[in-house]
Amino acid sequence: MSEHLTVVDHPLVQHKLTQMRDKDTATPEFRRLLREISQLLAYEITREMELTTKRISTPMQEMDAPVLQGKKLALVSILRAGNGLMDGVLELIPGARVGFVGLYRDEETLQPVQYYFKVPENLEDRLVIAVDPMLATGNSSAAAIDLLKEAGATNIRFMCLLAAPEGVAKMKEAHPDVPIVTASLDECLNEKGYIMPGLGDAGDRMFGTK
Ligand code: URA
Fold first, then answer.
1. Does the beta carbon of 34 lie inside 6 Å of ligand 1?
2. Binding-site annotation, residues for 5-phospho-alpha-D-ribose 1-diphosphate
């Protein structure tokens, strides 16, 4: 992907996103919409995956038919909200290998600290798609990408539902080689680090917590 930021402005994505933003949308509906949007974002983010051909026989004749080339892609969820995006992508790409990155924010230093890291082997040979619905300050996303690079990943893309300009700028500075695909570039962060107009706390809304 040549663009650092791609906003998927497809009407279906935008319509579903409006439903997700609405504070009256309940958890089951929110989760369903997230799954549907994640598949539309996955369509965009995998657009340039490489193909090769394989000889097959249709009922009519033989042909060289296109199939994906290389190792299975790695889908990495940034816990916990990343799991909501991951589920839908896995339905679309069931053969994907799955990884998890868990980070929390140290209350004193305000820096992300790793508490869990498990990723597929041979990351260097795979397209790696890191998923987290909300790109807010970008600190945890950039730290997660640092960890993926340390583990060998060289071809990484980042999928989110909403991005704040602050998060995009942070990612561009830290990881200019990682294209971002999102459903919306929102206006700003508020003083508590929430995306505005946003949709609130994505994890709470998808898991029904407070
Ligand atoms: N994380 C969320 O869940 N929501 C925001 O608005 C920002 C970060």
1. no
2. 80, 105, 132-140, 201
What confidence tens digit (pLDDT) does each residue in 164-187 have? 999 999 999 999 999 999 999 999
Q: What are the residue boundaries of the structural domains of the chain, listed by start?
A: 5-207
User: What CA–CA distance (Å, rounded) separates 49 from 70?
Assistant: 10
Categorize the per-residue pLDDT at 210 as very low, low, confident or very high, splitting at 50, 70 and 90: confident
- As for the ipTM of the complex, it is 0.95
Neighbours of 21 (CB within 10 A): 18
Quick check: 207 and 27 in contact, CB under 8 A? yes
Mean pLDDT of 3-32: 97
CATH topology of domain 5-207: Rossmann fold (3.40.50)
Q: Is the dihedral of CA 73, 141, 133, 99 positive or negative?
A: positive
Ligand 1 centre from 188 Cα, in Å? 12
Burial of 73 (0-12, 13-18, 19+ CB in 10 A): buried
Closest CA to 41 of 155, 134, 139, 160: 160
Neighbours of 206 (CB within 10 A): 23
